[in-house]
Write a structure and sequence with these properties.
Number of strands of chain B: 16
Strand content of chain A: 5-15%
Number of helices of chain B: 12
Oligomer: heterodimer
Radius of gyration of chain B: 20 Å
Helix content of chain B: 25-40%
Shape of chain A: elongated
Largest sheet of chain B: 8 strands, mixed
Strand order of the largest sheet of chain A: 1-5-3-4-2
Number of helices of chain A: 16
Radius of gyration of chain A: 29 Å
Distance between the termini of chain B: 32 Å
Strand content of chain B: 15-25%
Order of helices and strands of chain A: EEHEEHEHHHHHHHHHHHHEEHH
Structural class of chain A: alpha/beta
Distance between the termini of chain A: 74 Å
Helix content of chain A: 40-55%
Largest sheet of chain A: 5 strands, mixed
C-alpha cells in the first residue's frame, strides 16, 4: 500500500460493493457502536475509488455500518490510489482482520467459502486454515464449510456459543424444515454438545427407519408434553426428551436398561455396593464393587450379597438381554 | 446376471507373462489397457469401480481368516486369489476394507500353487478347511479366469486332507461340471430373503437362480453349504427367512448339505458411511445396533438369539441332523440357541473338521 491519501468522506459516498469483502459476522456490533459513541472512529476506513466521488470500502465494513447507525455524516478514510483486484482486496481485508482479532466459526466458514473462489481446496487447507487458527485437515474444512449458509437463528446461536459448531454442522446435513424443527427443539434445552449430537443422530436414524419426517417425530404427544411442561427446569426437560428419543431408537437395549434399574432397586443393595451390567448386556458377566472400612463392614456386605445371590431377582438380572 | 466388463485394465508389468492375464486381456480385447509398474502408487488416470487390475500377490496367498476377537471363530483358512466384487451388496464389508475401488486379480498362480503345495503338507497333518470367498465371490469370475479348474484338480491330487469351500451368491457353476473333486469341495451359497436379495444385493442373481445352481452341483456330486449370513432384521423377517428355507429344502436334499451357518448383520463402525454414500436407499444401518465386544456393530443380543433360534427351528423341520453353526458369535449366544457352545475356537474348529 504505497500510494494512499487520507480524506474525510461523506457516508453516502461509501459503498459495500462486493459480497466477497465483508468477512465479519455479525456485521453489527453493540461494542463497536458503544466505542464510536464514546471516543469516535479511531481507525480510518480503507477505500478505493469506485466512480467519480464514490468509493468502495475495502476494510472497515462494520465500522461503516455502525457509523451509519449513529447518523454520522463523514468518516476519515485512507484512499488507495492504485485499484486492487477482487483477490487483492479480499486478501487485504482478511489480513487486516486477522492481525487484530480471532474469527468466530461462522466467520471461519465465510472465509473458507470465499478463499475457495481464489484458491484450490488443497491450498485453502494447507495455507489458510492455519492462518484462521485451524488445523490443516480436510475434515476441519468439511465441517466448517456449510455453517455460513445456515439459517440466521442457527448462525446467531453458534456465534453466541449457545450451540457448538459440531452441532451446527450436523444440522446443516438436513433440509430446511428438518433443521428448523431440530434447532427449535435443541436450542432452548440445556443439553451438552454430545447429547445434542446424540439426539440429532437418533432422530435421523428414526426418520429413515420409520419412514417418517423429523417434524412428525417431534410432534409426538410424549415429546410435546415434556416440551410444554413448564414446571420442569429446562435441563430436566432436555434430559427427558433425550431419553425418550433414545428409547425409540434403541427399544431393546432401553427395555433391558429399565428392567435392570427396576430389579436392582428390588435387590435393595446399600449405596456402597455397586452392581454394574456388562456393556449393552452383550457379555454374561456382571460386576459387583463395594467399599468397606472394617471387617464388620465387609461381613455385612458379604452377607447381603450372599442373601441376594440366591434370589429370583438376581436370576432375572442374569437373564437380561437374552430375550426381546 | 449381467456379464462383467471392465472399462479399463491396469496391467502390472509383473503380470504381463502370466497365462491368466493373457486369457483376460484376450477376452476384453476392446478394453483399454494401461501398463503400470508399481500398482500401489502410479495410477494414471485414477481408477474407479469399473477398473480391473491384473497384478501379482506379493504377500502370502494362504492365511487364516481374520475372524474377530471375543467371539468364536472356526479356524478357516483363506486363499487370496482376487479382491473385490461387482455384486454390489449394500452391506458388503469390502467397501470399507479394500483400498482399490475396482477388481484385482492376482495372476501369479504358479507362485500361489508353490506356496500352497509347500504349506499344505501332503496329508501329514490335521484337516484344513480353506475357502476362496473372503475378499471376493468364489465363482463370480470363474468363467473368466477358470480358477476353479486350475485349483481343484491340483488340491485334490496333492492332499486328501483338505476341504475347499467355494462360497458364492451366483449361478456361475458351469466350470465345476466334470471336475474330479473327490468329495473335497463344498460349494456353498449365501442366501437371503427375496426382499433383501432385491433391495440389498443389487447385482446378485435371485434366490431361484442360486438354488438352481445348487441343485446342479448337488447332481454333480458336490457337497453343499448354505450361509444365512447376514441375517437382516426388518418387519416380516420371520416369514421371509421361513420362505427361503421352505424353498431351499424343496429342491435340496438335506443329506447333501455339509453345513449351514448363520450370522446376524455386523459391521465395523466405519461401514455405515460407505453404505450411505453407495446405497442411499438402504435402510439396514438404521436398525438398533450396539457395539459388540470386538468393536463391531451388532444387533442387540436378545434379538440375535431370537433370529438364530427362529431360523434354526425352520431348518430343523427339514434337516434335523445337519450341522448348523454360528459365525462370529459369543459362547453365550451359542448356549441360548443350541443349548451348548464350543469351549473355545479350537473346539469350534474340531466341530467343523469332524463333519467334513
Amino acid at each position: 500500500m504505497k500510494n494512499v491519501k487520507c480524506a474525510l468522506i461523506q457516508l453516502e459516498r461509501l459503498h459495500i460493493v462486493s459480497e466477497l469483502l465483508p468477512v465479519s459476522y455479525p456485521l453489527t456490533s453493540p461494542a463497536l457502536l458503544n466505542s464510536l459513541r464514546n471516543v469516535g472512529l479511531i481507525t480510518p476506513l480503507l477505500v478505493q475509488p469506485l466512480s467519480p466521488g464514490n468509493y468502495q470500502v475495502i476494510c472497515g465494513h462494520r465500522r461503516l455500518l455502525a457509523c451509519r447507525e449513529l447518523g454520522l455524516r463523514t468518516v476519515p478514510c485512507r484512499i488507495l490510489q492504485d485499484p486492487l483486484s477482487d483477490r487483492e482486496a479480499f486478501l487485504l481485508n482478511l489480513h487486516e482482520n486477522m492481525a487484530t482479532r480471532t474469527f468466530n466459526p461462522i466467520e471461519q466458514s465465510l472465509l473458507i467459502n470465499k478463499l475457495e473462489q481464489f484458491f484450490t481446496i488443497e491450498e485453502v487447507i494447507r495455507d489458510y486454515l492455519p492462518l484462521l487458527g485451524l488445523r490443516p485437515h480436510a475434515r476441519v474444512r468439511e465441517k466448517l464449510l456449510p455453517l455460513a449458509d445456515l439459517n440466521e437463528p442457527v448462525k446467531k446461536a453458534v456465534f453466541e456459543e449457545r450451540i457448538h459448531p459440531d452441532v451446527a454442522y450436523r444440522l446443516s446435513c438436513f433440509n430446511d424444515c428438518e433443521r428448523r424443527a431440530m434447532f427449535g427443539l435443541l436450542e432452548p434445552l440445556y443439553l451438552s454438545t454430545s447429547k445434542q449430537l446424540e439426539v440429532i443422530a437418533n432422530l435421523e436414524a428414526l426418520k429413515f427407519r420409520e419412514n417418517t419426517t423429523i417434524e412428525r417425530l417431534l410432534a409426538d404427544k410424549s415429546i410435546q408434553e415434556v416440551c410444554k411442561n413448564n414446571k420442569l427446569p429446562l435441563n430436566q426437560r432436555g434430559e427427558r426428551i433425550r431419553r425418550l428419543i433414545h428409547q425409540w431408537r434403541m427399544p431393546f437395549f432401553s427395555k433391558a436398561q429399565q428392567d435392570f434399574a427396576r430389579y436392582k432397586k428390588e435387590l435393595g443393595l446399600p449405596p456402597n455396593i455397586q452392581l454394574t451390567p456388562p456393556p449393552f448386556f452383550e457379555k454374561d458377566e456382571y460386576k459387583v464393587t463395594f467399599s468397606f472400612k472394617n471387617s464388620e463392614d465387609l461381613k455385612k456386605h458379604l452377607a447381603k450379597l450372599n442373601q441376594v445371590a440366591d434370589t429370583a431377582t438376581i436370576r432375572q438380572i442374569m437373564g437380561l438381554g437374552k430375550k426381546v | 446376471m449381467k456379464a462383467y466388463k471392465p472399462t479399463v485394465i491396469y496391467l502390472d508389468s509383473d503380470s504381463g507373462h502370466d497365462v491368466v492375464a493373457h486369457k483376460i486381456l484376450n477376452r476384453f480385447a476392446d478394453v483399454p489397457v494401461v501398463p503400470v509398474h508399481d500398482y500401489l502408487s502410479d495410477w494414471t488416470p485414477e481408477p474407479d469401480k469399473n477398473s480391473l487390475l491384473l497384478t501379482h500377490n506379493r504377500g502370502r496367498f494362504l492365511r487364516a481368516c481374520p475372524g474377530t476377537r471375543s467371539y468364536l471363530c472356526c479356524g478357516y483358512q483363506i486363499v487370496d486369489f482376487a479382491a473385490g466384487c461387482t455384486l454390489g451388496c449394500s452391506y458388503c464389508i469390502l467397501q470399507a476394507y479394500l483400498n482399490f475401488p475396482g477388481l484385482v486379480f492376482y495372476t501369479n498362480w504358479e507362485e500361489m500353487w508353490k506356496e500352497l503345495e509347500s504349506r499344505l503338507g501332503g496329508g501329514k497333518r490335521h484337516l484344513l478347511r480353506i475357502g476362496t470367498g473372503e475378499f471376493t465371490d468364489s465363482l463370480l469370475f470363474d468363467k473368466l479366469t477358470d480358477f476353479s479348474q486350475y485349483l481343484i484338480p491340483r488340491l485334490v491330487k496333492h492332499d486328501s486332507n483338505i476341504v475347499l469351500e467355494l462360497k458364492t451368491k451366483t449361478d456361475q457353476v458351469d466350470n465345476l461340471q466334470g471336475i474330479e473333486h473327490n468329495n473335497q469341495v463344498v460349494v456353498s451359497w449365501s442366501l437371503n430373503t427375496s426382499k433383501i436379495v432385491e433391495e440389498e444385493e443389487a447385482n446378485a442373481p435371485g434366490l431361484d437362480e442360486r438354488l438352481d445352481a445348487a441343485v446342479r452341483c448337488q447332481d454333480w456330486g458336490y457337497r453343499l453349504g448354505f450361509h444365512f449370513d447376514p441375517l437382516i432384521y426388518y418387519p416380516g423377517w420371520e416369514e421371509g427367512y421361513q420362505a427361503v428355507i421352505d424353498k431351499m429344502f424343496a429342491c435340496i436334499n438335506p443329506d447333501k448339505i455339509l453345513w449351514i451357518s448363520m450370522g446376524c448383520l455386523r459391521f465395523m463402525p466405519s461401514l455405515p458411511k460407505f453404505i450411505r454414500d453407495n446405497h442411499p436407499q438402504s435402510k439396514i444401518i438404521w436398525e438398533e445396533f450396539i457395539a459388540g465386544d470386538d468393536g463391531k456393530m451388532r444387533y442387540f443380543k436378545g434379538l440375535r438369539i431370537k433370529m438364530y433360534s427362529t431360523v434354526l427351528a425352520n431348518i430343523r423341520r427339514y434337516a434335523p441332523d445337519v450341522l448348523v453353526y454360528l459365525c462370529m458369535e459369543s459362547p453365550g449366544v451359542w448356549q441360548e440357541v443350541f443349548g451348548e457352545a464350543p469351549a473355545n475356537n479350537h473346539a469350534f474348529k474340531v466341530l467343523l473338521d469332524e463333519c467334513c
